[in-house]
Amino acid sequence: MPFERRQLLRSLSIVFGSSFIWSRNQLGMAAQTATQPQVSPSPAGSTVHEGMATGMEMEKVTGIGGFFFRAKDPKALALWYEQHLGILPLPTSYGDHGWQQEAGSTAFAPFNETSGYFGDPQKDWMLNFRVRNLDKMAAQLQAAGIEIKVDPQSYPNGRFARLHDPEGNPIELWQPMAADTKG
Question: Is the pTM of this model over 0.85?
Answer without folding.
Answer: no
